[in-house]
From TrEMBL:
<dbReference type="InterPro" id="IPR013325">
    <property type="entry name" value="RNA_pol_sigma_r2"/>
</dbReference>
<feature type="region of interest" description="Disordered">
    <location>
        <begin position="1"/>
        <end position="21"/>
    </location>
</feature>
<keyword id="KW-0731">Sigma factor</keyword>
<keyword id="KW-0804">Transcription</keyword>
<dbReference type="Pfam" id="PF08281">
    <property type="entry name" value="Sigma70_r4_2"/>
</dbReference>
<dbReference type="InterPro" id="IPR000838">
    <property type="entry name" value="RNA_pol_sigma70_ECF_CS"/>
</dbReference>
<comment type="similarity">
    <text>Belongs to the sigma-70 factor family. ECF subfamily.</text>
</comment>
<feature type="compositionally biased region" description="Low complexity">
    <location>
        <begin position="112"/>
        <end position="126"/>
    </location>
</feature>
<dbReference type="InterPro" id="IPR013324">
    <property type="entry name" value="RNA_pol_sigma_r3/r4-like"/>
</dbReference>
<dbReference type="Pfam" id="PF04542">
    <property type="entry name" value="Sigma70_r2"/>
</dbReference>
<feature type="domain" description="RNA polymerase sigma-70 region 2">
    <location>
        <begin position="41"/>
        <end position="105"/>
    </location>
</feature>
<feature type="domain" description="RNA polymerase sigma factor 70 region 4 type 2">
    <location>
        <begin position="133"/>
        <end position="184"/>
    </location>
</feature>
<protein>
    <recommendedName>
        <fullName>RNA polymerase sigma factor</fullName>
    </recommendedName>
</protein>
<keyword id="KW-0238">DNA-binding</keyword>
<dbReference type="InterPro" id="IPR036388">
    <property type="entry name" value="WH-like_DNA-bd_sf"/>
</dbReference>
<keyword id="KW-0805">Transcription regulation</keyword>
<dbReference type="InterPro" id="IPR013249">
    <property type="entry name" value="RNA_pol_sigma70_r4_t2"/>
</dbReference>
């Protein structure tokens, strides 16, 4: 990026505030029955939501199904959005509830091995959510820790936003992140040894 481009771009907090306003307007339009507004939010958040759901479900197909469930839930519950959190935080909360509904009592699926011995080419989602070694390490985390890690790293949410999504205190978010990092470090070190 050259100096002229940087001069014409608004500061990051202005862009973030602008995005939050766009999201709130889109959600209000969804509440009014505007399917185009749902498509707009989908385009903006499908990647981060899919990455979050993929890490919770451990399976691409299941994550895609939960993402569709999430969109249906957003369509149905948009009128209940009260603006107490950012739309992005609210969306992650809806996705989390849909994932818990779908995954309740089900063990995370194991990664399938390719039939011919050749590894399939990674798709864009695979590249976005990390490699197989990271996926296996995350799968070993308890769900509560995995949620916090995925929201922090892939969702790029702040501690306060994670606390809102999970409905837990900020201190609990920090504690879970700390314990998850220790566990992940051990898992990854174990793999390298």
């Amino acid at each position: 990026m050259d100096a002229r481009t940087e001069e014409t771009m608004p500061p990051r907090h202005d862009r973030t505030a602008g995005r939050a306003e766009q999201d709130a307007r889109a959600l209000a339009r969804i509440a009014g029955g505007d399917a185009g507004a749902l498509a707009e939010l989908y385009e903006r958040y499908a990647g981060p939501l899919f990455a979050f759901l993929y890490r919770l479900a451990g399976d691409r197909g299941t994550a895609e199904e939960i993402l569709q469930d999430t969109l249906l839930a957003v369509w149905r519950s948009a009128p209940s959005y009260q603006g107490r959190s950012a739309v992005s935080t609210w969306l992650f909360g809806v996705a989390r509830r849909q994932a818990h509904n779908r995954l309740r009592g089900a063990p995370p699926p194991l990664a399938a091995e390719p039939g011919d011995g050749a590894a399939p080419a990674p798709g864009p989602e695979d590249l976005a959510v990390g490699g197989d070694r990271v996926h296996r390490a995350l799968a070993r985390l308890p769900l509560a820790q995995r949620e916090v890690v995925v929201l922090a790293v892939l969702g790029d949410l702040a501690h306060q936003e994670i606390a809102e999504v999970l409905d837990i205190p900020v201190g609990t978010v920090k504690s879970r992140l700390h314990h998850a990092r220790v566990t992940l470090r051990g898992c990854l070190d174990e793999r390298l040894a």
